[in-house]
Amino acid sequence: MKATAKAHTNIALIKYWGKRDEQLFLPTNSSLSVTLDKFYTETSVHFSPDFHADRFILNDQQADPKEMEKITTFLDRIRNLSGKSLYATIDSKNYVPTAAGFASSASGFAALAAAATKAIGLDVDYRQLSQIARQGSGSASRSIYGGYVEWQKGEKADGSDCYALPIISEQDWDIRVLSVEVTTKAKKVLSREGMKRTVETSPFYSGWLEAVEKDLITARDAIKEKDFEKLGHVVEANALKMHATTLGANPPFMYWQSATVEVMQEVEELRAAGIEAYFTIDAGPNVKVLCQPKDEHAVRDKLSLLTVVREIHHCRPGPGITYLPIEK
Ligand code: DP6
Q: 7, 12, 78, 171: least CB-packed within 10 angstroms?
């Protein structure tokens, strides 16, 4: 009853921002992402009647009680589905630089969902796996697949129509995502808390909901047509709209720092100089810059001149989950 799985992070091109059901992780809007090749999580799960509690080792360290609780709640769902009440030992390694502002929860829960279902003997397809991963962290629902992925919000109260599906694979369209790490000062509001506060208090949230479904259709069409300019424009505009909702929240908050804005402005200048680059930003100060392979070096050279830029990671569209051989 052992299995090991690997899952990659993803960056949202059209953002998931808000839940309609916090227990089931049902979002208020559909979202769209690209899975990235650089950053991933590898997780081994072992269920055994000999274990008397769940154990979770993350990067060779025993997880803290808060993390442990999230994992146990997640495993309980898998135990319920399988009808087996066995405890598990989980060994997980994150190859995600936390400072780069990528949510390791996306690759983390996707890898855990894949390894745990396999270890306990559940026969699930990718759609079901996406639904299971979603209940650990919403964005994890998208990391089941490689390439360009859409997470459909669904309509049903039980979440049975809420899962991610692939649009085109990582081989179908090569783009670059440069993850630009900037120097940071303030502590961030976690995405879970930030989206909740926004849904509950921001008068701009209704505007977000009005716009996001249209943005998603534009982005999906752009991906199918492989129209980089069309995709870049809608991705950047969608990120700006998401961040605008936080300014209206009570209390208001902002993920950007001055360094974030410097990078955003530099991207605008690149465009003015005829290089197609577009930014997107998640719940943190770092910026992800989309460009075409031919412009990758020009974009990097320009951005790395900024003193606020600490490091730039180069990513390509990456694969979905894979199962690895079990170590003896
Ligand atoms: C801004 O998936 O981390 O990155 O479902 O509460 O775990 P929970 O939130 P999470 O939120 C991600 C928010 C985002 C946008 C996105 O990835 O779509």
A: 171
